[in-house]
Specification:
Elements: E1 18-21, E2 27-31, E3 38-41, E4 47-54, E5 60-64, H1 75-78, H2 82-85, E6 87-92, H3 106-109, H4 113-124, E7 131-135, H5 137-149, E8 156-160, H6 186-199, H7 207-218, H8 222-229, H9 235-242, E9 249-254, H10 263-271, E10 276-280, H11 287-290, H12 292-305
Parallel strand pairs: 5-6, 5-7, 7-8, 8-9, 9-10
Antiparallel strand pairs: 1-2, 3-4, 4-6
């Protein structure tokens, strides 16, 4: 796979981000330095975008977002004390953020495309066994990576609100569906975007974070969202791959999640017996935004342990 660096992209850009305040003067707006992405050619030549912050000599964290999101969803991690200690790399997956957005359904349902994209990022960014953090669909992307490449290039795995094993018993009522809905109007697409984003939270984050999330959700084309929602992997094949995982594994799960039910976390631990679960009781699908201080502390401890 070929790697192509943007004209302004620089793998040595390690700006330390800052935490700010919302319009009401409350803490909770995390300001992420707008560093240029490294554009990396992944499977089929589709370019994904990788960004970097933090301590270039620190232990490495790779952040992988969910469907209809982008790297900015991890603002409470990027713009935190984590960046002083760790080297943080976040990716915009195919179809999202600054990445290429092919409208061909096959680009999102290929048996190895997501995995090959992640492998290309690891190579292009010269990552030395990072801890890979996968939220929601990002956890399924890491699953495909494990199925194709194994865990040898990773130091640890952190699944966050992820239905890694696609057992229907773990799908919540707000799980995105693959229904094409004919030709939705602009008004319908707007309502679908708002409804999905609302379902991501039990405890809504600061207003600025929510407003930015609406924006980066909206730039993901609806055909991309539907194609990603229709991507499935056989649970038996997934379980077989997870049983081969040997690196430390952390599972973070909100008890009030209506997209991915708590049963999903139990299923991961059944397949990876050494994995441990961190439960967030009054929390929905986005623990890293709903309870960022606790999440960051637990992530830092996990990275140090591995």
């Amino acid at each position: 796979m070929d790697m192509q660096e943007s004209e302004t992209g620089d793998r040595n850009a390690h700006a330390l981000p800052m935490r700010g305040h919302d319009a009401d003067g409350h803490e909770g707006t995390w300001i992420v330095p707008d560093v240029p992405p490294l554009m990396i050619a992944g499977a089929g030549g589709v370019r994904v975008a990788a960004y970097e912050w933090g301590n270039p000599e620190g232990r490495e964290i790779l952040l992988v977002h969910g469907v209809a999101q982008c790297h900015l969803c991890f603002a409470p991690q990027i713009a935190s004390a984590l960046a002083r200690e760790f080297r943080i790399v976040a990716v915009d997956l195919r179809g999202h953020g600054a990445a290429d957005k092919p409208l061909d359904t096959a680009a999102y349902q290929h048996h190895s495309a997501w995995a090959d994209d992640i492998a290309a990022v690891l190579q292009a960014k010269a990552l030395r066994r990072p801890v890979a953090v996968g939220w929601s669909m990002g956890g399924r992307v890491l699953r495909q990576y494990l199925m194709r490449y194994g865990d040898g290039a990773l130091a640890g795995i952190h699944f966050v609100g992820a239905r890694v094993i696609e057992d229907p018993r773990a799908a919540g009522p707000a799980t995105p569906t693959a229904q094409p809905c004919g030709h939705p109007t602009v008004a319908q697409e707007v309502e679908q975007t708002i409804s999905f984003l609302d379902a991501c939270y039990y405890k809504r984050p600061a207003r600025a974070l929510y407003e930015r999330a609406l924006c980066y959700n909206a730039i993901v084309p609806m055909p991309v969202r539907r194609a990603a929602a229709a991507w499935h992997t056989d649970p038996a094949e997934t379980i077989a791959a997870l049983r081969k995982v040997r690196v430390p594994t952390l599972v973070t799960q909100g008890m009030r999640d209506t997209i991915v039910l708590p049963a999903a976390a139990h299923m991961i631990v059944e397949a990876i017996p050494h994995a441990r679960i961190s439960w967030y009781e009054e929390c929905g699908h986005s623990p890293f935004q709903e309870y960022p201080e606790r999440f960051n502390q637990e992530l830092a401890a996990f990275v140090r342990e591995v």
